[in-house]
Each structure stands twice: as C-alpha cells, then as structure tokens.
Prior knowledge:
Layout: E1 2-7, H1 14-23, E2 27-30, H2 31-38, H3 46-52, E3 57-58, E4 61-62, H4 64-73, H5 76-102, E5 107-111, E6 126-131, H6 134-144, H7 149-157, H8 162-168, E7 171-174, H9 179-194
Parallel strand pairs: 1-5, 1-6, 2-5, 6-7
Antiparallel strand pairs: 3-4
The protein binds dephospho coenzyme A and adenosine-5'-triphosphate (ATP).
Amino acid sequence: MKILGVTGSMGMGKTTICSIFRNYGFLVFDADLTVHQLQSPKGKGLYHITQVFPKAVKDNVLDRQYLRKIIVQDRQNLKRLEQIILPLVAKERDKFIRLAQAKGHQWCILDVPLLFEKGIDQLCTKTLVVDAPMAIQKVRILKRGKITWEQAQAFIDSQWPNRLKCKKADIVIQTGLSKAHTFFQMKRLICQMQKGLL
Ligand SMILES: CC(C)(COP(=O)(O)OP(=O)(O)OC[C@H]1O[C@@H](n2cnc3c(N)ncnc32)[C@H](O)[C@@H]1O)[C@@H](O)C(=O)NCCC(=O)NCCS
Ligand SMILES: Nc1ncnc2c1ncn2[C@@H]1O[C@H](COP(=O)(O)OP(=O)(O)OP(=O)(O)O)[C@@H](O)[C@H]1O
C-alpha cells in the first residue's frame, strides 16, 4: 500500500482537500482530530496532561484556552505537550495504517500538520503540501474566531515555513484561488493516483 502524507501550515486547506479525498473513497488519518480524541474525557492523553499541567484539566475536561495561553507565554509548554501527545498519536496512526492495509486499499492518506518537522514523511511514498498566500491564511484563521493572531503565530512559528515544505514536497496544491480551482487540481491528482501513475 502507498502512503500519501498531507501537510501545510494552519488554515492552508488540509481539512478541505482531505474531505475531497474521503469523497473519492480514500481512507484519511486526521492527526488533529486524533489529538482531540486523545484529549477527550475518556482519551488516553488526559491523565498524562493532568500530571504535567495540573491547571489545564478541570472536571475531567481539558481547558484548551488555558493551554493556548501558556503556550504563548512560554513556547517550551508546547514542546512538553507534544512529548505527551505525539507518541500516543503515533500509535493511533500505525493502527490506522495497518487497518487500511488489511482492507486492501491502494493508498492511505495521512493528514499531519507536523509531517516534515517530526520525520513522518519518512513513512510516506509521496508528500503533498497545501499552500496559500500568508495574507489569505491570516484572513481564514481570524474568520474562524477561535484564536487570536498572536496565538496562531505561536503554532505557525513552531512549524517549518510553508515555502520550505513546498520545496520538499512531491505535490503542491494551491488553495489561494477559488474552491473550484482547488477541486480541479485534486481531481487531476486523484485520477493519477487511481491509475497508478504516482
Ligand atoms: C494546544 C491545543 C490544546 C490547542 O487546542 P485547540 O483546539 O485550540 O487547537 P487545535 O488542536 O484545533 O489546533 C489549532 C492549530 O494549531 C496546529 N497545531 C496544534 N499543535 C501544534 C504543534 N504542536 N505545532 C504546530 N502546530 C500545531 C493545528 O494543526 C491547527 O492548525 C492543541 O493544539 C494541542 O494539544 N496541541 C499539541 C498536540 C500537537 O502537537 N498536535 C500537532 C498535530 S499532530
Ligand atoms: N480554494 C480553497 N481551497 C481550500 N480551502 C479554502 C479555499 N477557499 C477558502 N477555503 C477555506 O479555508 C479555510 C481553511 O481550510 P481548512 O480548515 O481546510 O485548513 P486546515 O489546513 O485544515 O487548517 P487547520 O490546520 O488550522 O485545521 C476553510 O474555511 C475553507 O473553506
């Protein structure tokens, strides 16, 4: 089975293009969603977070706003959080890959924001980076209203710049124009994948 690693900075369009893959029947592993599941009240990560950040969990619920705040105050807190969560994400990802293989899929897709930073590209047959101009990225993030630009920058700065990722990737999908333009690029790519041309 071939593995396509999908990545890109915050708000570049990873979720959008992965939903196109799903619509075409591909199995997609979503690392951000897995993090959220691991941090849910019954998730395997919550207890460990409580040990390192006692104030971040109240009544068995993770206070995401508090964590975002302490990450902006001290970027080492993001590293500490990664040390707890990323090994658990890796276990879930490996399980997912084994399942996709057992189901006989030709390809499986890994949607992982830290694909290059954490060397997960080594597992992939091909890599894809989703890209858009930074001005568009900023508008998208602020439009969601979930986090401030200062908070967003703490995450963006801890990732490789998107232009570096684009240089390293086998495939780049541009999402700065219309959704129709994104869909057109995706349709061409999926056609190549299905025909075994990639
Ligand atoms: C700090 C937390 C609790 C904030 O939760 P919140 O719901 O507000 O944000 P969410 O998880 O939706 O992430 C927001 C954006 O930040 C990006 N992001 C999350 N963690 C990181 C990180 N360690 N480095 C760079 N970008 C990150 C996400 O890809 C997304 O684009 C959460 O992001 C977290 O637990 N991060 C650590 C886990 C991690 O490293 N995830 C990376 C993906 S494998
Ligand atoms: N041409 C386009 N292609 C893809 N997404 C677009 C396009 N135009 C606008 N968008 C919008 O950009 C927003 C960000 O996309 P998306 O949530 O897929 O990014 P993401 O990379 O998954 O972000 P994050 O890592 O922060 O979760 C979405 O609201 C999406 O609808």
